[in-house]
Amino acid sequence: MTVVPPRTHAPTPGQTVGPFFAFGLGYPAMNQVVFPHSPGSLVLGGTITDGEGAAIPDALVEIWQADADGSIPRARGACRRDGHTFTGFGRAFTSDEGRYEFWTRNPGAEPGKAPFFAVIVYARGLPNKLHTRAYLPENAAALAADPLLASLSGEERATLIATRTPDGGLTFDIRLQGEKETVFLAY
Amino acid sequence: MTTTPPPAAAPESLLAAPDQASQAQISAEIAAAHADAERRVAAGEPLPTTLYDFPPYRSSILRHPTKNPRLVDPETIELLSPAFGQRDVAAIESDLTLQHAGEPLGERMTVEGRLLDSWGRPLRNQLVEIWQANAAGRYIHQRDQHPAPLDPNFTGAGRTVTDDEGRYRFTTIKPGPYPWRNHVNAWRPAHIHFSIFGSSFTQRIITQMYFPGDPLFALDPIYQSIRSQKDRDRLVGVYDHDLTSPEFSMGYRFDIVVDGPDATWFEPEKEH
Ligand SMILES: [Fe+2]
């Protein structure tokens, strides 16, 4: 058993991303974890809404994922895409309608585990980042065995499982507040 | 005897709505929220360092989660992070004063610091991104309506990757404070936005660096969304005369410590 020594450094607190992040955090093809329309590619998208159900047009979403075989990408280049290297990381801004979209592929997982995208949300008006997970909807046995999902009510669990669209894409809406509020995570 | 003229008014269309709160009311709400947080922490409630539920920051009212986050054991993917390297950035991206044909206006400065984990270990090859207003307090972002001048020689965005000691360094212009419409006469203290990756995705952080002694600190609901003074102090860059270059630029130090669960502690590699 690893003994974790006491921490010596207090963490730097987070702050809101504010309204004007687009020119600082945007870069070409940032939401293309894979090249659009390449074999196995799909669109993962959704809408981010507030406590009144209104779309949030100034939010930022990041995903980080394993490759389809469950391996964790170690290749560099997520900020300067070459169109074929799989770095596992993507970033998207919401549109005026509060919608974000990624081109990516299905993540895999370790044997017996439920695959998911690690997701972080930031927005103007949100004082700090929020972590969550977007699980693939298939493989009921792995979902049932997942420790996080097993600890949630049915309604909460539903906020973390993406919906498969007829064309193979994934829909994952994020509700920052209110009815069906997305389950957010602390580690 | 001279009479002081009233301060110049911004164009009508940019003024805060008449039904907005005064600074006095916002300041009272900040004090009340801090006192409430202190009471709850004293009673044993775990509250985040940065309060999500912080009504003086008006646009947070409908955008903050109302439930506590669910504590989970991170899975392997969450314990690792995207790999970055020099191929991800160009060297010139760390100098915000060289991105145009001419020199930007304002006070040239460098900001340098180290990226560390909770045990003081440097985080190498991590992406650091910054963005900021120009010296007049204006962002290049098209939604920024503040009637201060744009600077044709300043964009205000930079990127770099930390070196083997976890160090990063930017050359830029000291940003100006700027107004926003949270309440009547609301001004943000001068700040630089920072986005940082750690070696674990759980350590990801977006924050803001401020400047020593800013008179706007006490008035700003964003800075004050951090509930304790000692944590707020961690966001203030330190003036460092050793980083100041003679005849050239002022130097500030801003070290960043990422958080992360105990699982981000990996046993150091054994010597063979
Ligand atoms: Fe700002």
Task: Explain this structure.
The complex is a heterodimer of chains A (187) and B (272). By secondary structure, chain A is of the alpha+beta class. Chain A has a single domain, classed as Aromatic compound dioxygenase (Protocatechuate 3,4-Dioxygenase, subunit A). Chain A is built from four helices and ten strands; from the N terminus they run αββββββαααββββ. In chain A, strands 1, 4, 7, 8 and 9 form a five-stranded mixed β-sheet that branches. A four-stranded antiparallel β-sheet of chain A has the order 3-2-5-6, with no helix packed on it. Chain A is globular, with a radius of gyration of 17 Å. In chain B, strands 2, 5, 10, 11 and 12 form a five-stranded mixed β-sheet that branches. A four-stranded antiparallel β-sheet of chain B has the order 4-3-8-9, with no helix packed on it. Chains A and B meet through helix 1, strand 5 and strand 10 of A and strand 1, helix 2, strand 3, strand 9 and helix 3 of B. Strand 10 of chain A pairs parallel with strand 1 of chain B.
Small molecules in complex: fe (ii) ion
Could you name the CATH homologous superfamily of chain A?
A: Aromatic compound dioxygenase
Number of E strands of chain A: 10
CATH architecture of chain A: Sandwich
Radius of gyration of chain B: 21 Å
Kindly summarize this structure in a few lines.
Chain A has 187 residues and is α+β, with helices and mostly antiparallel strands.
List the helices and strands and how they pair.
The complex is a heterodimer of chains A (187) and B (272).
Chain A: H1 22-25, E1 42-49, E2 59-64, E3 89-93, E4 99-104, E5 116-123, E6 130-135, H2 140-145, H3 147-150, H4 154-158, E7 163-164, E8 170-171, E9 174-175, E10 185-186
Parallel strand pairs in A: 1-8, 1-9
Antiparallel strand pairs in A: 1-4, 2-3, 2-5, 5-6, 7-8
Chain B: H1 23-42, E1 70-71, H2 76-79, E2 108-116, E3 127-132, E4 157-161, E5 167-173, E6 178-180, E7 186-188, E8 191-196, E9 205-210, H3 229-233, E10 238-239, E11 250-253, E12 256-257
Parallel strand pairs in B: 2-11, 2-12
Antiparallel strand pairs in B: 2-5, 3-4, 3-8, 6-7, 8-9, 10-11
Bound molecules: fe (ii) ion (FE2).
